Fold:
Amino acid sequence: MKLSKMFFAVGLMLLACVLIVPNAMAKAPVVIGIQAPITGPWAFEGQMAVQSCKVAADLINKKGGILGGRMIEIREFDDSGTPKDGALAAMKIVSQKDIVGVVSTYGSPTVEASSNIFEKRKMINIAYGATFKGLSQKNRNFFFRTCGRDDAQGD
Structure:
């Protein structure tokens, strides 16, 4: 009888290991911030940017994620399209240690205020709506953009 209780206990521990350990050892997600004007005069652009990032993350996650099976998590931060709120959003982003990079906002003045903070913290910052050429002339190592500068666009 004691032997059967021991087998039962060992079996129960093995079952617990099979059910609990994989979840405890699950790979942490890759967390990417999206800073956008979710409210304010450019809310439509900001909401579309957030939605685009989430769709891209979902497509990647459905195919097994990145970096050996890590899922992508998107966290959104509203900057209302103003430099002041952009800087506040950037401070919130850099304070979250699990965020590895950010898709930053729409509007060059807001991007500039945010980029100064991201650069100081050495956080990758990819702006989707910043055309001011001065953003590229400030010797930033972690700033990138997805659109052309004002001096490279047509009239």
